[in-house]
Amino acid sequence: MAITLTKAQQSVVDHNEGALLVVAGPGSGKTRVVTERIRRLLEIDGQHFRVLALTFTTKAAGYIAERLTSVPGVDERAFIGTIHSFCTEVLANRGKAVGIDDVPNIFESHNDRREVLIEAVRQEPELQAMLEAHEDSRERIKLVDRWLSIIGEYKNTLVLPEMVADPRVSRLYAAYNDQLRASNALDFDDLLLLTYQLFEQRPKIAEFYRRQYRYISIDEAQDLNEAQYRVLCSLCGGEYRNVLMVGDPKQAIFTWNGGHPKYLELFAQDFSASRVELLDNFRSSSAVVRAATSINRDYRVEGELPIQGVVQVKALSDEVAEAQYVADTIADLARNGHADVEGGVRLNRCAVIGRNRFVFDSLCEEFDRRSVQYYKKFGGLVVQSESDLMAEVELGFR
C-alpha cells in the first residue's frame, strides 16, 4: 500500500549518509517516517548492511517491527528493540571483558533489588548499624529505598563505586554490585553502565558494531538520559555519523529516570547533524490543536486534521454530578451521533479517562443505577449494557 508523505516527512525517509535530527511534534507521523526510512534502506538492491533501530518501550519497538514484516529478511537485517535490549545482546555476546559470560539475569523488580541491597548491607557492619538504628521497619525500608535511588543515580550518570567521594556510599554501592554478581545478575542500570565500559575499554568491539550496523535510528529521543547518550557516543566513536534521532522536547516523560530533551540539541552539536522539523498534526482535531496552542504559545502547527472536533471544560458541583454528566453525554452521543463521526457513534470506541482509579467510583455507581454492566479491561473498566444504546464504553486512567 502506497503511503502519502508530506515534503518534510519525505526528506527524512530519503535521507542517506550523515547525522539527522528530526524534531517532531505530536501527531506528526514521526514513527512512520522512522519506519519508512528503515524500509527504504533495507530494500536497496545489492546491499547487505544491517540497521539498528532503538526506542524506549517494547510496545514502540513492536509497532515498528510489525510494520516492517513485509521486508524480506528483516529479522536478520535489522535489530529493532529498546536501548536496554540492545545492551543486553551486546553484553551477552561480547561482555566477557566486563565480567559477563552469558545472557545476564536482569533484576528489574524493585523488591528484588531491595533484597539484594539488604543482603549486601548485612555483610557490612557499619552499614548494618546504620540500618538497625531505625527501629521502625517502615523507616528501614525507606532508608534502603533511598540508598537504591542514590545508587541508581550514580549508575545513570556512569559513576563507578571507586569514583564516589563518600567512603560509606562507595562501600554501599560496591557491596550492592558484589551481591548482584554473586546472584549472577545485573540490574537495569547495569546494562547501560557495563555496555559503556565495554565500548570504552574495548574500542574494537564498538568498531565491530559500527561495521555491522551501517545506520542507526533512535525514536522518542527526548527521553535519553546521560548514560544512554554516552553509550550512543561511545558506540559511534569519532567518525561514525549515520544516526537519525527523532524526538519532541515537549513530550519528555522519563525525567524521573534522568531523561532530558537537552540531549537532542547536544546530539545536533556533537554529531554536526542536519535538522528537519515536522510541524503537522495528523492526530488531533482543530479544536484540540487550538486548545494546545492556548496552553503553550510556542506550539507551532503547519497542518492539521480537517476535523473540527470539540473541547469543553465543564465545572460541576461534585463527583456525583460529574458521573451523571459523563453518562448523559455518552448516552446522547449514542442516540444522536456527532457531526465529525460518519455512521453514528459506536460506544465501544468511546473512552472516559480519569486521573486515577478512584474517580470512577461515582461513575460506576451511576452506570449501576442505569443497569449498565461493566468489567475490568487493560487496567481500566469497560462498560457493557444489554440495551441497544450502550454497547461498550472504555474507562481508563492515566
Chain-wise SSE layout:
Layout: H1 7-13, E1 20-24, H2 30-42, E2 50-55, H3 58-66, H4 74-77, E3 78-82, H5 83-94, E4 105-107, H6 110-122, H7 125-132, H8 137-156, H9 167-182, E5 185-187, H10 188-201, H11 203-212, E6 213-218, H12 226-236, E7 243-247, H13 262-270, E8 274-278, H14 286-295, H15 319-336, E9 350-354, H16 361-369, E10 373-377, E11 380-384, E12 393-397
Put the structure in a nutshell.
Helix content is 46%, strand content 15%. The chain has 398 residues and is α/β, with parallel strands linked by helices. Strands 3-2-6-7-1-8 form a 6-stranded parallel sheet, with helices on both faces. A 4-stranded mixed sheet has the order 9-12-11-10, covered by helices on one side.
